Structure prediction request, 302 residues.
Amino acid sequence: MQQTVVEHMDRVTEDVVALTLRATTGELAPWEPGAHVDLSLPNWLARQYSLCGDPADRDAYRVAVRYDPLSRGGSEYVHRFLRRGRALGVSLPRNHFPLVPAPRYLFLAGGIGITPLLPMLRAAAAAGLPATLVYVGPSLDSMPFAAELRSTYGDRVRIVETGRQGRPDLDALAAGLAADTLVYCCGPATMLAAAEAAFPAERLHAERFQPVARTFGPDTKFEAVCARSGDTVVVPADESLLDALAHTGRPLPAGCREGVCGSCEVTVLDGTPEHRDDIGAPEGRMYACVSRAASPRLVLDL
Prediction:
């Protein structure tokens, strides 16, 4: 974990606070647009947030946290108890939503989904590339960074207040796009579903807050062999690999526990994992919070 201190806490809307996390020693790890980090909170929780600052600033990270009334303890702690000057551990950045080079871009953001798109729009504008942001929310005062975006990018940014204007017509947007435009979308499930229906799959890049509901076969017991120690951990049918490892003294980092953040990635040396994540595990890796085994045994680099 990298060591930081909370330098600023800026309330950008009634339910969103932006944190500036200053490195306590040296520089922070480099990152690119689309990356996120895990914050190790003082209440023993780890939660992932998209980096929304400037990648050129190696002295500080910026993240934004929306208060969730159904919080499992992460956003509630940040909004109610976190204070300036508090030390926080921050993971190395991970990027499952990278900005692929393209001649032009359309960015679609819904609510707090604006955060990973902020550095993407900045990068596209700095490179002189045509880029448009369509930013959707109930009202202007509920949309974090809306005023900052308007003042910085002018008519490149289209603000859609659904309370007054209704939802944007994504089919009309798609019909008017040049064929070489890449579309980046982050927001609630309804927006992602509409984007998937409107834009060709090969041109759409999306990041989800929650996993897609899918059906898998019945969970079965399997063995996980920890190659470094030679120990075997039995994973019961009613327990995740992540929890089985933790219960035997082998805890892994864990953020979302839903297969969307990648913090619990492990290397598979032998056996066949059954991937149940939503970000696409790299070859030879799996995410222990949701994925299981399609073979009776997995050998892990643990």
In short: The longest strand covers residues 2-13. DSSP finds seven helices and 18 strands in the chain. The longest helix spans residues 117-126. The chain has a mean pLDDT of 92.
